[in-house]
Automatic annotation (TrEMBL), chain A:
<protein>
    <recommendedName>
        <fullName>Beta-ketoacyl synthase-like N-terminal domain-containing protein</fullName>
    </recommendedName>
</protein>
<dbReference type="GO" id="GO:0006633">
    <property type="term" value="P:fatty acid biosynthetic process"/>
</dbReference>
<keyword id="KW-0808">Transferase</keyword>
<feature type="domain" description="Beta-ketoacyl synthase-like N-terminal">
    <location>
        <begin position="40"/>
        <end position="176"/>
    </location>
</feature>
<feature type="region of interest" description="Disordered">
    <location>
        <begin position="25"/>
        <end position="45"/>
    </location>
</feature>
<dbReference type="Pfam" id="PF00109">
    <property type="entry name" value="ketoacyl-synt"/>
</dbReference>
<dbReference type="GO" id="GO:0004315">
    <property type="term" value="F:3-oxoacyl-[acyl-carrier-protein] synthase activity"/>
</dbReference>
<dbReference type="InterPro" id="IPR000794">
    <property type="entry name" value="Beta-ketoacyl_synthase"/>
</dbReference>
<dbReference type="InterPro" id="IPR014030">
    <property type="entry name" value="Ketoacyl_synth_N"/>
</dbReference>
Automatic annotation (TrEMBL), chain B:
<dbReference type="InterPro" id="IPR000794">
    <property type="entry name" value="Beta-ketoacyl_synthase"/>
</dbReference>
<dbReference type="InterPro" id="IPR018201">
    <property type="entry name" value="Ketoacyl_synth_AS"/>
</dbReference>
<dbReference type="Pfam" id="PF00109">
    <property type="entry name" value="ketoacyl-synt"/>
</dbReference>
<keyword id="KW-0012">Acyltransferase</keyword>
<comment type="similarity">
    <text>Belongs to the thiolase-like superfamily. Beta-ketoacyl-ACP synthases family.</text>
</comment>
<protein>
    <submittedName>
        <fullName>3-oxoacyl-ACP synthase</fullName>
    </submittedName>
</protein>
<dbReference type="InterPro" id="IPR020841">
    <property type="entry name" value="PKS_Beta-ketoAc_synthase_dom"/>
</dbReference>
<dbReference type="InterPro" id="IPR014030">
    <property type="entry name" value="Ketoacyl_synth_N"/>
</dbReference>
<dbReference type="InterPro" id="IPR016039">
    <property type="entry name" value="Thiolase-like"/>
</dbReference>
């Protein structure tokens, strides 16, 4: 583990057809796998009256905390909960609850809605439910930040740590595919992610003190108005030599020493589109496997990078979310743990 | 560490539009909830402190033609005011960030469509559209963050804005919160039996719950060094510190011992280097719900000590209602004005003070006697944030 910076020390997945992290980067089209069953994964206790997004988030969160050695399946209250933050990202998470409640009130009255379903209409239900179940009493944030939301959540988890507001952060990205989200986004239900991904981020000091193992280090992050600008800010690229230009982006975070071997591209990005500086990089679009991931995308991409590192395929990865037609493009470099090839 | 200054303000609420109308309303201390203009509000108490019809900002669309809901329109209006008062012209757009808190965003737009039919040109207006619209207005090319931590959202947003500046990711941040009428939000609180049938009465012995309000507040934050370098016309106050915590207790109920509420306040005071005895005013979360006000009162006593009952509270929600995700920003803006103008305006009188809430709510204006004001914002799920504001240059 490097002497400074923020590291990923735990990974949890609630994705269709994924039994372990290695399955994340297996090639091919989306597996015809059944959706994850939260009750099967973590038992029915505590899931009643929770919406699907929250249930999926709880599954991924539990596995990430277990993976990081912060809890065990039999002892879910996190002993380090006072210094552990939660940052959840979802653009569509509780939309089905909100729309159903809105319709019931208009067509009938408030008497037609169940009080037990009401917490699900609160925008932060995912982040707070995760905190409640695992006793995480550090900062608790819910981001609904559009296409870049997942990567923003990872960056905010790291920022909370570097600002001293927490020693570690559980970052959760979750989306659900259903009729309501299909109607509102225009994306068919079977092309939407129905799953959750969670990462434990930790300062190197906190991780070292408790003997945690780094799966990846977070490098520099950038926000730009274009994919080219984002990539250009993160990759070594001589614009004058090739006649291209890269818009400057807003940078943050630490440095990853090695150049990337893989690029996790924005959702449905043209895998063969020429882009200066990315020659030779293997491109990977996780949404072709798992469906459009919206607010969960950046977290899913970081998890895929961890999986990539574990396979020994690369020592650094470039991750980008959002494209030129969006409100913004976010990017981040991740580095393999020391000792990895 | 470079200080974080507040150099621009904008606000809209049931008191009217603009900072002057807000301060005037604070000093008049008189308001009343009204019936919401929604024929489909099939609920027992369809009342809230709405923005007056004449003050509702005109309808606007996003550049792609997508209509904007009331939440976004409120946010745009107050951001225009804040940017104008800060005289931001000429700032590098890549160094301007936006952080906006909202609970329901433009949900009201979809609620209306579900009943009256979808327009020919529709699309999904997510929570994020509020921050996105403000980003377009400000020409901000830096980070654009939408925080949706229910009723504490904009309190967190302001704190995040300061962190963005401190970490060097932005020079200037347009931050705050916005909330408009939502049938879902008001319906849910009706169903929970958490709406007061008369008015919003925090810390009153006969309080029955909260009453929602519409509103938005925007603040322009920048470092002292940046403000000086660009010749900012004024600094209203400085954001001296912030504290965050989470109850991890219940999805809707506050943790009854107030342990994490206390933690957030102490963290904010510690970060700002302010001794509790220096606190001259608290703008509490104080919603009018039975247990919340009691727990917050006890927490204030624990943090501020035996003199807590003498520290004046300014109960903003008794005047403008509970503005949901915008509440933290409106409370912070009220505290900025209190610090800047050196006066704590009169509170809306309570009918009967709750003996369980040992707090001071002066019904006449009193001098701001201290060096700092504390703002609290809490939310479902136990999300707590406290802010400390001080006079600029103090």
């Amino acid at each position: 583990m490097s002497e400074s910076g923020t590291h990923i020390t735990g990974l949890g997945l609630a994705l269709p057809g994924v039994a372990e992290a290695a399955d994340l980067v297996s090639s091919g089209e989306r597996a015809d796998a059944p959706p994850p069953d939260p009750a099967e994964r973590i038992g029915r206790k505590g899931l009643r009256y929770k919406d699907r997004a929250t249930q999926l988030a709880l599954v991924a969160a539990r596995d990430a905390l277990c993976d990081a050695g912060l809890i065990t399946p039999d002892r879910e209250r996190c002993a380090a909960g006072g210094s552990t933050a939660v940052v959840a990202s979802s653009n569509l998470g509780n939309l089905d609850s909100v729309c159903t409640i809105a319709g019931d009130i208009a067509e009938k009255s408030v008497a037609a809605i169940s009080p037990m379903n009401l917490p699900n209409a609160s925008s932060n239900v995912v982040a707070s439910s995760v905190a409640i179940r695992f006793g995480l009493r550090g900062p608790n944030l819910m981001l609904c930040n559009g296409v870049a939301s997942g990567l923003d959540a990872v960056r905010w988890g790291a920022s909370l740590i570097s600002a001293g507001r927490a020693e570690r952060a559980l970052v959760v990205g979750v989306e659900t595919g259903n009729g309501v989200t299909a109607r509102l986004t225009g994306v068919p239900e079977d092309d939407q992610l129905d799953g959750a991904v969670a990462l434990v981020l930790e300062s190197s000091t906190a991780a070292r003190l408790r003997g945690a193992t780094s799966m990846a280090s977070l490098g520099e992050g950038v926000r730009s108005t274009s994919v080219a600008g984002c990539v250009g800010s993160l990759l070594p690229y001589d614009a004058s030599a090739s006649g291209g230009t890269h818009a400057r982006g807003t940078r943050s975070g630490g440095a990853v020493e090695a150049g990337p071997g893989v690029w996790f591209v924005p959702e449905r990005f043209d895998l063969s589109a020429p882009l200066p500086g990315t020659e030779g990089l293997e491109r990977h679009d996780v949404t072709r496997t798992f469906g459009r991931a919206s607010g969960a995308l950046g977290v899913l991409q970081c998890a895929a990078a961890v999986s990539w590192f574990a396979s020994g395929e690369a020592t650094a990865a470039l991750v980008t979310s959002g494209d030129d037609g969006c409100d913004g493009v976010a990017g981040m470099m991740l580095g393999a743990p020391r000792g990895a090839r | 560490m470079d200080e974080i200054l507040i150099t621009g303000l904008g606000v809209i609420s049931c008191l009217g539009n603009g900072v002057d109308a807000f301060w005037r309303g604070m000093n008049e201390a008189a308001s009343a909830p009204r019936r919401v203009p929604d024929p489909n509000a099939h609920m027992d108490i369809p009342m809230m402190y709405g923005v007056p019809e004449a003050e509702v900002p005109r309808a606007e669309r996003e550049p792609d033609g997508q209509p904007l809901g009331l939440g976004s329109r409120f946010a745009l209006e107050v951001s225009r005011q804040a940017i104008a008062s800060a005289e931001l012209d000429g700032t590098d757009p890549q160094r301007i960030a936006v952080v906006i808190g909202t609970g329901m965003g433009d949900a009201g737009l979809h609620e209306e469509w579900r009943v009256s039919g979808y327009p020919e040109r529709d699309g999904w207006s997510p929570t994020f559209c509020v921050a996105s619209a403000v980003g377009s207005l400000a020409g901000a090319e830096g980070p654009n963050i939408s925080v949706s931590n229910a009723c504490a959202a904009s309190g967190f947003a302001i704190s995040i804005a300061a962190d963005l500046i401190r970490s060097g990711e932005a020079d200037v941040v347009v931050t705050g919160g916005a909330e408009a009428y939502s049938r879902v939000a008001l319906g849910c609180f009706n169903r929970l039996g958490a709406v007061d049938s008369r008015r919003c009465r925090p810390f009153d012995a006969h309080r029955e719950g909260t009453v929602f309000g519409e509103g938005a507040a925007a603040l322009v934050l920048e470092s002292e060094e940046h403000a000086r370098r660009r010749g900012a016309p004024r600094a209203y106050a400085r954001l001296a510190g912030a504290g965050w915590s989470c109850d991890a207790h219940h999805t809707t109920a506050i943790e009854p011992e107030g342990e994490q509420v206390v933690r957030a306040m102490r963290q904010a005071l510690r970060e700002s280097g302010v001794d509790p005895s220096e606190v001259g005013c608290v703008v509490p979360h104080g919603t009018g719900t039975l247990i919340n006000d009691t727990v917050e009162s006890r927490a204030l006593s624990e943090v501020l000590g035996p003199v807590a009952a003498k520290h004046p509270l300014y109960s903003l929600k008794s005047l403008i209602g509970h503005t949901g995700g915008a509440a933290g920003a409106l409370a912070a803006l009220a505290a900025v004005l209190i610090v800047h103008r050196g006066t704590v305006p009169p509170n809306v009188p309570r009918d009967v003070a709750d003996p369980e809430c040992e707090v001071s709510l002066p019904e006449r204006a009193v001098p701001f006697d201290g060096s700092a004001a504390v703002v609290n914002a809490y939310a479902f799920g136990g999300n707590n944030v406290s802010l400390v504001l001080q006079e600029a240059g103090s």
